[in-house]
Every structure is written in C-alpha cells, then in structure tokens.
C-alpha cells in the first residue's frame, strides 16, 4: 500500500573505493516522520552511506529508493529537487553576507535549478515569488530563534549559531528528508541541547523526516526513533535506542570505544 512505502530505502548498498570496501550490503528503510540515526566507529561507513543517499557517491552495487522511486542514478541536484536536503560538515556559509541573505541564497538556488523555472521566475511573478521566499525564510528564522542575528554577517557568528544558520538554510528549502552530518560536532553542551530541541521540533511540528549521523551517543539515544549501527561498512544492528543500547555486538564494537575515549 502506498502509505506503507518508506520515504527512503537503501537496498543492499555496497560501495568500494579501489580496494577499500566502505559499505558492504547495507539495507535499511526510513519511514515518513522518523528521526533515524546512523552511528558507528570512525571509518565505519556512515558518511559514505549518507553520501549515497545525497547522490555525492554512486553505490557500486545496490539501489537507493526515495518515495518508492529508484534514484540511484540521479545527480545530487535532482535529488534535492525531489526533497532531499542536507547540511554540510564543513560550514559553507558566505561569511560576508547576512544571515538572512545566506538563507535566501539557498532558496534561490532551488528555484533556479531548472532553466524553465528560472524563465518563469523572470517573466512572471518575480515579486510574488520574492515575497514568498521572504516569508518562508522569516518563518524559519523565527523557528530556529536566530532573529537577533538576521542582519549580522554570517562570518561574525559563534560556531553554534553558524551551525544553526546552516540548518536554517537547508530547512528553508522545505525538504521531505533532511540529512544531517554530525549536527552537534564541536558544540558545547548548551548548543547541543538547543540543536537537539530544534531537530525534534522540526520533526514533530513540521513533520520533517531526519537521517542523521552523530557521534554524541546521549543525543542520538535521546532524540532518535531508530538507530542503525555500522561497523567496518556492514550493518551490525538496527532498532530502537533501547534495543541498540542493549546489543552485545554494539557494546563491544562501539560503546566500548566511547568508554575508552
Ligand atoms: N572518497 C574516498 N576515497 C577513498 N576512500 C574513502 C573515501 N571516502 C571514504 N573512504 C573510506 O571508506 C571507509 C568509510 O569511510 P566513511 O567516511 O564513510 O566512515 P565514517 O563512518 O563516516 O567515519 P568518521 O566517523 O570518521 O567520519 C573508510 O575506510 C574511508 O577511508
């Protein structure tokens, strides 16, 4: 039945870089409305998996389905157009531009992705579109509580705020699925708590489905509906945070590493 089709499905995905097996036969599905996290030790294949979903990498074998449609061969911008949004691990904000303009750029980029849509933009309704953009951007600025810095150049913000602006830029495109690569990396406790709250609110209030890589186990177990553990490119286990925490393989392969760190 249509409403049982997961939003995202990875089917037997393998990825090799020369002799390196980054992923081996990994399958999982993310349902509409879930927060799904991928965890695992360094080099386990987490980023490779998310890159296969965003389209940055093409799996050597296997398929990626989005809303039941095979997107394995689609380029990243086509996937973005279908509703797969992402933030980037290295902050790629325009330092001299205001927060507001940084977020606006994201939306214009989407709009002008197609030539015909670009023409439509210029020929008719440009002002109306501009107003719609502004409204959408202001809404997300309010939602992520960055009103106080909306005019500030992005380069002058604290690290935590820049990460929030980056999230705002991705969310302003209203993706159906958002890919978050270590959204808490480098943050202090307060910033992490804020970010966790925003992700939960985006999920609960805006219905945004989230696929996240995150090393902070507290946050992962706190806000995820389900978690998949990768180890040496293979899926070790997948389930609710309780199931994953209780798994013996996970304790040995991953949690043990955290305790030792
Ligand atoms: N572009 C690439 N070229 C060659 N090897 C790569 C490439 N990207 C990833 N790999 C290799 O694939 C394996 C999985 O890497 P990946 O970055 O996906 O792991 P990860 O779980 O995200 O690690 P981390 O937690 O350190 O970010 C590693 O052995 C890595 O060296």
Labels describing this entry:
261 residues, alpha/beta, Rossmann fold, 2 domains, six-stranded mixed sheet, four-stranded antiparallel sheet, 10 helices, 43% helix, globular, binds adenosine-5'-triphosphate
Written account of the structure:
This protein has 2 domains: 1-83 and 175-261, P-loop containing nucleotide triphosphate hydrolases (Rossmann fold), CATH 3.40.50.300; 95-174, no CATH class. It has 10 helices and 10 strands. The protein has helices at 46-54, 76-82, 99-111, 115-123, 126-143, 159-171, 189-206, 217-223, 241-246, 248-260; strands at residues 8-17, 20-30, 35-39, 61-66, 69-70, 84-86, 177-181, 209-213, 226-231, 234-239. The longest helix is centred in the middle third of the chain and has 18 residues, at 126-143. The model has no long low-confidence stretch (mean pLDDT 87). Adenosine-5'-triphosphate binds next to strand 2 and helix 1. Keywords: ATP-binding, Nucleotide-binding, Transport.
Describe, in short, the structure shown:
The protein has 261 residues and is α/β, with parallel strands linked by helices.
SSE layout and pairings?
Layout: E1 8-17, E2 20-30, E3 35-39, H1 46-54, E4 61-66, E5 69-70, H2 76-82, E6 84-86, H3 99-111, H4 115-123, H5 126-143, H6 159-171, E7 177-181, H7 189-206, E8 209-213, H8 217-223, E9 226-231, E10 234-239, H9 241-246, H10 248-260
Parallel strand pairs: 3-8, 3-9, 6-7, 7-8
Antiparallel strand pairs: 1-2, 1-4, 4-5, 9-10
Helix pairs in contact: 3-5, 3-6
Adenosine-5'-triphosphate binds at residues 17, 20, 22, 40, 42-48.
């Amino acid at each position: 039945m249509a409403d049982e089709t997961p939003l995202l499905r990875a089917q037997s995905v393998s990825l090799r870089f020369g002799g390196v097996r980054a992923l081996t036969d990994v399958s999982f599905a993310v349902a509409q409305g879930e927060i799904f996290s991928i965890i695992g030790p360094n080099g386990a294949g987490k980023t490779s998996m998310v890159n296969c979903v965003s389209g940055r990498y093409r799996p050597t074998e296997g398929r990626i389905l989005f809303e039941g449609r095979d997107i394995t061969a689609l380029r990243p911008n086509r996937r973005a157009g279908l509703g797969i949004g992402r933030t980037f691990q290295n902050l790629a904000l325009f330092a001299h531009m205001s927060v507001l303009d940084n977020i606006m750029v994201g939306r214009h980029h989407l709009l002008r992705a197609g030539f015909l849509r670009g023409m439509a933009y210029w020929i008719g309704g440009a002002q109306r579109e501009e107003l719609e953009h502004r409204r959408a951007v202001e809404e997300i600025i309010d939602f992520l509580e960055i009103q106080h810095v909306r005019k500030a150049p992005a380069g002058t913000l604290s690290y935590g705020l820049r990460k929030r602006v980056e999230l705002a830029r991705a969310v302003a495109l209203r993706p159906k699925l958002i890919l978050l690569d270590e959204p808490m990396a480098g943050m202090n406790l307060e910033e992490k708590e804020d970010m966790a709250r925003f992700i939960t609110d985006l999920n609960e209030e805006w219905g945004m489905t989230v696929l996240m890589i995150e090393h902070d186990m507290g946050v992962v177990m706190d806000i995820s509906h389900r978690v998949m553990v990768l180890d040496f490119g293979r899926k070790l286990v997948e389930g609710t945070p309780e199931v994953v925490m209780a798994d013996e393989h996970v304790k040995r392969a991953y949690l043990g590493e955290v305790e030792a760190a």
